[in-house]
Amino acid sequence: MTPWEDLAVLAAGAGAGAINAIVGSGTLITFPVLLALGVPPVTANVSNTLGLVPGSLSGAYGYRRELVGQRGRLLRLGAASLAGGLIGAMLLTKLPSSAFAAIVPVLILLALVLVVIQPRVARAVAARGGASSHPDGSPLLVAGVFLTGIYGGYFGAAQGVLLLALMGMLLRDDLQRMNAVKNVLAALVNGIAAVFFLFTTHIDWLVALLIAIGSTIGGLAGARIGRRLPPVALRGLIVVVGLIAVIKLLVD
User: Fold this and answer.
1) What pTM, to 2 d.p., does this model score?
2) Are 53 and 213 in contact (CB under 8 A)?
3) In whole angstroms, what is the distance from residue 235 CA to residue 205 CA?
4) Residue 130: count of CB within 10 angstroms of its CB
5) Alpha-carbon distance 190 to 155, whole Å?
6) Are 214 and 17 within 8 A, CB to CB?
7) Separation between Cα atoms, residue 89 and residue 91, nearest integer Å
8) Of 14, 141, 167, 178, which has fewest CB within 10 angstroms of its CB?
């Protein structure tokens, strides 16, 4: 690639890292840029996944205060994310790239609806004792996180939106604390998928390195911005980003 193309990938990585820390869907920034530069789709996907791991970690670090007291939750949901991410990565090497094309926009739209109605649903769940009975995650939430991990290991765009929708419905907690957990779960999914790809498929190491540098910087910046947003603003941003993701996927 030319120096200008390198700069474009670096900038895309920074944008993806920032939006992933705040909401999710950073892949929708980096992946089209890589395709436009002529990187083959599967190589772009796996190189992007590897490159976004440091950004997910920096975003999680930026939310470290909100992670205090959530060790049990992270262990329970993290195990589900790791298992799902590994299966998703395996599917990427076996299934055609169009396999999830029809279902992904539907999943994102459903997640957006859940994000919008989340306060009402959360109150209803709490009233029945569902959320308080499983402070670290009900079996239903664990199953949902596992399935989201499969999707994340396969492609991952708007993985964060899906996770926030699930946790918003089934956990009784502050949205910012759930966003902190989302960043850790996304890092686990990307990380396990990246490890699998290291031994099974081709990686464009320059692309991965540029995205890693950019996403690390963007993740730290995004966490600083996201932590200052009130719940209503954060929820609104989730919906806007999610709708853009759906439109982009449908157009493509």
Assistant:
1) 0.80
2) no
3) 35
4) 18
5) 10
6) yes
7) 5
8) 178
